[in-house]
Here is the input.
Amino acid sequence: MEIKFDVKMTQKAMFDFMLRHAYSGASGFVGTFFGISAFVVAVVTFGDVQTWQTILYAAFGVWFIFYLPVSLYFRSVKQVKLNPVFKNPLSYILTEEGIRTIQGDKQADVEWDSLYKVRETKHNLLVYTAKRYAFVWPKESMGDQYPEIVKMIRAHAAAEKVKLHDH
Here is the structure.
């Protein structure tokens, strides 16, 4: 069996990937924790400390909570616009042996057993080939083939590496 689909990377898909990647690790948790803590300290100490200190606590909260998503948004816009790989669609072919990527006259193959992990977000299927690198497959690019793709991944990738919603 063979499944073929094309992906034209969008800023929305890249931003979704970057958010998932940033907030699934310890740094995302720590940043969120510090942001919430700073807001709590600002509220709890309001009136007991000087106004500039309350403003500083609130500013730290804003920094930790809002800086990362905003910076990731702008980085995703820049990456999609400037990275030559995203200028043209990438074709993917899923076979019994693995995943083939094709763009222009270049192609690469990844065997199923060499996948690092597979995750799902609201908008994407993320097929990691290493800890920091993934194929980002927008669900809209896969269309009606999405259930077949999920079925093929579950059949060929190691079960402990695959965490997808039930479909």
Q: What stands out?
A: DSSP finds five helices and eight strands in the chain. The mean pLDDT is 92. Strands lie at 3-7, 90-94, 98-103, 106-111, 117-120, 124-128, 134-138, 162-163. The two ends are 20 Å apart (CA to CA).
